Amino acid sequence: MANGSARDVRISEISPLRSPDQLSCQLPLSNDDRDRISQFRENVNNIISGKDNRLLAIVGPCSIHDPKAAIEYAEKLKKLADEISDQFFVVMRTYFEKPRTALGWKGLITDPDMDKSYDIDKGLEVCRKLLLDITHIGLPVGCECLDPIVPQYTDELMSWSSIGARTTESQTHRSLASGLSVAIGFKNSTSGDFTAAINAVKSAREPAAFIGIRRNGVIAQFHTTGNNFAHIILRGGVNGANYYENDVESAESAMKKAGLDPAIVIDCSHANSNKDYTRQKRVLRSVIDQKIWGNKSIRGFMLESNLFEGNQSIPCNLNELKYGVSVTDACIGWEETERIMKHAADILRKAKENGGEEIL
Known about the structure:
- The chain is an alpha/beta fold.
- It has helices spanning about 20-25, 30-50, 65-85, 120-135, 150-155, 170-180, 195-205, 245-255, 280-290, 335-355, and strands at about 55-60, 90-95, 140-145, 160-165, 185, 210-215, 220-225, 230-235, 265, 300-305.
- It contains ten helices and ten strands.
- It has an eight-stranded parallel β-barrel, surrounded by seven helices.
């Protein structure tokens, strides 16, 4: 090596980032919104633990790439959430990091300008501001945790979180989950097997230690207490869907065998919909039917939804991007979202009227 160094041989540039403290000082969380988030978290935790028999509804875009469209979506979702709050507690899906199987856009935090310039400092600022704005509208937010450093910038703003199918087996993410301030769901692996997710839940509920950064940017060792609100998310796999009654019962049995209270969220998208966004309503109807027939372990569901249906590729000229349309997985549009959510709430209300609270 010309410079005689054996380190950073494949690093082309190192750029400083604002610390979590610096960014939070520039974009502070108000006392009112802090109280609001505390109540949001309590609602989520009560649902996951079975104290609240409403369903947790994680609803929103596959990924957010346009803050303006996200705010418009949040305003619509807030109105809907209020109308169906007797049956569902709605959390807006605010996913800013996208794990890729191979190549592709990695999300608003990593590449906010969508041109491979990778201005992560800007991405963190854009995303924190958006989380603050959505919270101020009155909606709780839920994020996927991918980079183990990012939660230091977002943890105080989240009301729910998830670990994706590709990272559920990661010990780093299991340890991170054990210290997060919010309930966290582990997705089953891409194969469809939920053993890894159950092991992850068991691991995340125990105390752990990991290396991270403090809010002032200093590297530190973190000791955790364990996350009692870790749960699994069934999202299907290469062998097909796993939201059917037999699949849910198998997951329940496996969780009980592992010494865990069964707490399950059903992902209506991904392999459960056979990657066909129009089939999400079928999965949701199955979830509602199973609840009506007495299932107590299903605690929630996830819907991929946007202002407009479908998805699009990212064009070279970003001015050609269609407004309110996903650039990752295809989503149902707003009108469909509103229709199926209201219909599901009506079904649950009628079931209670006809059969009493005990059926739920």
